[in-house]
Specification:
Length: 287
């Protein structure tokens, strides 16, 4: 294993460019170093340790945006009271990532680039219309997170690019929801993740562990925009089937994932959003 330790962002970008895609950026290492002992092919790799790039660590506020740095951790977000006020889902998701040790090392940028379909940070960022800021030598590119993923572990990031920031527009939200369904509260990978927001820009419904990538659910968003009346969770299933394609795997079945997504959405929206659900129909609460 070769570890490069740049002191400045410019030096990091030069190293990435000069290694023609062979240097792997490492932030908290909480995804990369899990693979390292078990996958022999990881051992000969060159890693670009970003830990000395301290300018990328703090989160910042502008008039219009919250800007997470390329090295901002979950713990940085949990500790900032203004984030809880304006973007409560970021704190809720951060608190459900691993345990405190992982929250202290793991970064939002690492969660995005690791591209797990079951990630917890990505859905809430996507529900807040986050934009990924990528930098390479002499060029800067911004990609909305909901257009960042192209397929399973495929994304719009070249190997010479670093995620240097994540921009999140500041807006008043009328409704927000984050749900992670797992086998237990902590240290669990999501069987299903759901992040929903509503503001002047419209509804955002984002599903995790329901497709090869985390993704928005345009058919459900349309139902919400149109305030289409629904009589129960089953009325949501056709839209869910248009938006996502869950699989059976060791954590859950596709059937369970669809049913739970429909129930979570139906019950929370009925109770908290004023969605015109039929009040006479009783359904068991999701478990
Ligand atoms: C015990 C344990 C529990 C966990 N629990 C959860 C959980 O509950 N929910 C969850 O979502 N995740 C969980 N994870 C996964 C992991 O902690 C998160 O995905 C975390 O956000 C990864 O961030 P990192 O900084 O450690 O990334 P790293 O491991 O350093 O990197 C991950 C990927 O991102 C790339 N990368 C990192 N930073 C940059 C950058 N600035 N620019 C370009 N590429 C970059 C790396 O090259 C690599 O491909 C867990 C991991 C462990 C070990």
């Amino acid at each position: 294993m070769t570890v490069l330790l740049p002191r400045r962002e410019r030096e990091a970008l030069e190293l990435l460019a000069s290694h023609s895609g062979d240097a792997v950026p490492m932030a908290g290492g909480t995804d990369l170093l899990v693979q390292w002992p078990v996958r022999l092919e990881e051992r000969g790799k060159t890693y670009l340790d970003l830990s000395a790039l301290t300018a990328l660590k703090p989160l910042r506020w502008s008039t219009d945006e919250l800007i997470l740095g390329g090295l901002t951790t979950y713990w940085d977000v949990i500790q900032e009271p203004r984030v809880r006020e304006e973007f409560p889902l970021l704190v809720e998701a951060a608190r459900q990532v691993g345990a405190i040790q992982i929250q202290a090392r793991g970064t939002w940028a690492g969660n995005i680039v690791n591209a797990s379909p079951a990630a917890d940070g990505v859905p809430v960022l996507m529900a807040y219309d986050a934009i990924v800021v990528l930098e390479s030598l002499g060029a800067r590119e911004e990609v909305p997170l909901d257009r960042f993923y192209l397929g399973y572990k495929e994304m719009r990031r070249r190997s010479d690019q670093l995620v240097v920031a994540i921009r999140i527009p500041r807006r008043p939200y009328a409704y927000s929801l984050f749900e992670k369904v797992g086998s237990r509260r902590a240290q669990a990978i999501a069987k299903l993740g759901l992040a929903v927001t509503h503001c002047e820009a419209g509804w955002r419904v984002v599903a995790a562990s329901m497709a090869p990538t985390i993704r928005r659910c345009p058919a459900i968003e349309r139902l919400l925009e149109e305030r289409a009346p629904v009589r129960g969770p089953d009325d949501l299933l056709p839209a869910i089937d248009r938006d996502v394609s869950p699989i059976d795997d060791i954590r859950s079945t596709a059937h369970y994932r669809r049913q739970v997504m429909a129930r979570l959405l139906y019950h929370d929206l009925r109770e908290r959003s004023g969605w015109p659900c039929d009040p006479n129909t009783q359904h068991p609460a999701p478990t």
